[in-house]
Specification:
Elements (H helix, E strand, L loop, with lengths): L2 H6 L11 H5 L3 H6 L4 H4 L17 H9 L1 H18 L1 E6 L3 E6 L3 H4 L9 H15 L3 H17 L6 H10 L1
Antiparallel strand pairs: 1-2
Helix pairs in contact: 5-6, 8-9, 8-10
């Protein structure tokens, strides 16, 4: 079985000894200061430039996520944690579908990521692409729409080329 699938199902830890359940309990400080968890929560088909131990998505893993509602539910849980870290929230409804918007904690959280050349922008690119590949494309599109709105509100907070990367990721 894939190491990544085993990690995502909660059956094993990553090479740093962290289980997904442990990462899900982290506070904002951990999410900001630890740099080798994001590749496990939001894997991609390419090797990470920042973490040699990062998993790499292959067709088998992608197919498993697309076929397994529980894996997608766990991916969504990871996504919601990072949204909260960024001061954003996800709401779904029959009428409007998936929408992502500012949460009550947005004003206190935006200072940690909503500025040009912030390392969290690379994380966001990864999140958008991973969600798109692993069966949560509607959430990636909603996240992108929210980011585009934030860009319209304050174009200086996000570099134009960053917005292009985000749009290509979805």
């Amino acid at each position: 079985m894939s190491t990544l699938l085993s990690f995502y199902r909660g059956e094993s830890a990553n090479p740093e000894g962290r289980s997904i359940a442990e990462i899900w309990t982290w506070d904002y400080r951990h999410f900001e200061n630890v740099h080798n968890y994001i590749q496990w929560l939001f894997p991609l088909p390419e090797p990470s430039k920042f973490s040699a131990n990062a998993p790499i998505l292959d067709e088998t893993v992608i197919e498993a996520f697309l076929a397994d509602k529980e894996l997608r539910r766990r991916l969504y849980r990871s996504f919601k944690l990072l949204l909260d870290f960024y001061g954003l929230q996800c709401v779904t409804s029959q009428e409007l579908g998936v929408q992502i918007s500012k949460a009550a904690n947005f004003d206190s959280r935006q200072q940690y990521w909503l500025r040009p050349m912030n390392h969290n922008h690379l994380r966001i690119t990864r999140i958008l692409r991973s969600l798109s590949l692993l069966g949560l494309k509607a959430y990636a599109k909603a996240f992108l729409a929210c980011l585009q709105e934030l860009y319209r509100e304050d174009p200086k907070a996000i570099a134009p080329n960053t917005m292009e990367f985000w749009e290509k990721a979805v």
